[in-house]
Amino acid sequence: MKQPLNINSNGILYRKDNTLKYTNKEVDKTIPIHAINEINCYGKVSLKSGAITLLQNEKIIVNSFNKYGHYQGSLYPKITLNSGTTIVKQALAYNNPDQRNYIAQEIVQGMKHNMRKTLMYYSKKGKNVTEYIEKIEKEPILNKNINQILSSEGKLWQHYYPAFNEITKNFPLKKREFRPPTNEMNALISFGNSLLYTTTLSEIYHTYLHPSISFLHEPRERRFSLACDIADIFKPIIVSRTIFKLVNTNMINKKSFKDDVGVYLTDKGRQKFIEEYNNKLKTTIKHPNLNKKVSYRYLIRLEGYKLIKHILNDKTYESFKAWW
Amino acid sequence: MINMILKESEITGVMVQYFKVCKRELWFYINQINMNYDNDDIEIGKLIHENSYKREKKEIRLENLVFDFVKNKNEIEIYEIKKSSKLTIGGSYQLYFYLWTLKKSNINAKGYLVYPKEKKKKLIELNNEIINELNEITQDIIEIAKQKKPPKPINKPYCKKCTYYELCMI
Ligand code: SF4
Alpha-carbon torsion A264, A270, A276, A279, what sign? Predict the structure, then answer.
């Protein structure tokens, strides 16, 4: 199975003959291009044009993050899996309010279900989160128009995040905030969400969906908004679970953070996070429809397939709802 | 709504093969949803020298097909190399289709399905029955192309080996 490659130092990616090399003052090494599915750069990494061509040909996405772990952007290979039918129908589905609302509310339904599942898991482990579970359950997903759906989504996160303070006492969340995070828990959530976004983007690349045509989020947002749509469904079971594992087993503690214009993970802390995150993605579960084991990462791809089937009028989309 | 209009000249051997095996697979293929990412198209036009067959203007595309051919004076032989003699319905129709296409350009050809592992070789020849069937198949393929949504999954043992398995079953 191909693995993501993480570059934590500053350096240069270049091409020598048909191999990809990485160099800086300390190293000059060959990167096994056929064994990797994406490259994530956490340092300042420059790409020479030869390397870009090679990466494009090998269809490898390169994601870059700044030192706070904030996603900066991606070098997205040219789209080779191109189905005119799929893209036209994807755009038509976006443009038809009934279709768009259906898909958007289904995404939020999945998210809601998975938030509830995640909290239930900790409730069974003795964490006092019943109050939050009830709030989530009671929150209706209004779906007359996209703004209603988005506001229901926002409310669900507002019910969900405060439960974090019950699941771990180590890093109080207080309030969910964005750039730059002013406390540890916000830094962890932001970093985890960025990782999930890039994973989702790679998986979408292997479907015929266009990453910029989305349903819940507006396509005009700066990011590949379809990745934002699909990632939302998986945040509770992938990002939140990873964070609690790291924090509650002390793999990440006070020493894993730095504080200057914001709080962010140290190199070591980040590497721990990525390792645990990748373990999560590799975890497999038996899929009831496919009758075989699939990884969490592959579940994201399958979400893309389900959306394709929906827009092709083949099968109505039902979002991923953790069944275990 | 969009409607895929497929011209008869755009029909390929792979489509004929998929037609025999699974109409849904065919529909996906026609709509460029192809899970076989790595198969490059081979153009027979490049292989049959233009000089040898001046009348042959049409370009015949052979996708997804391991094949070899030998020219014999005024007849050519097409070999299609298959891994196993199982699951060959689609494969032999692919070959019938090439023979028929060549025949329409007045090129007589003989086809052989070859199974190197089993050291077997099977002659594939056109007859009127097959030609009629191919005529019907091409019309049916054009109809399937027009369908706005994919035909239902077939749910046969073959599905397990099919590259669309996950897309179909999810
Ligand atoms: S999985 Fe089965 S139904 Fe689906 S395309 Fe393949 S053969 Fe057809």
Answer: positive
With a Cβ cut-off of 6 Å, ligand 1 is lined by B 22, 24-25, 153-154, 158-159, 162, 164-165, 168
Residues 6+ apart with CB under 8 A from B63: B12, B13, B14, B39, B41, B42
- CB contact (8 A) between residue A312 and residue B169: no
Across the beta sheet with A19-23, what order do the strands follow?
A: A28-31, A19-23, A11-16, A45-47
ipTM of the complex: 0.85
Q: List chain B residues with CB under 8 Å of A305.
A: 166-167, 170
Distance from Cα B21 to the centre of ligand 1, integer Å:
9
Specify the pTM: 0.86
Which chain A residue lies closest to B32 (C-alpha atoms)?
A83
Contact of A217 with A195, CB cutoff 8 Å: no
User: Is the model's pLDDT at B69 over the cut of 80?
Assistant: no
pLDDT higher than threshold 90 for residue B141: yes
Percentage above 90 pLDDT, chain A: 75
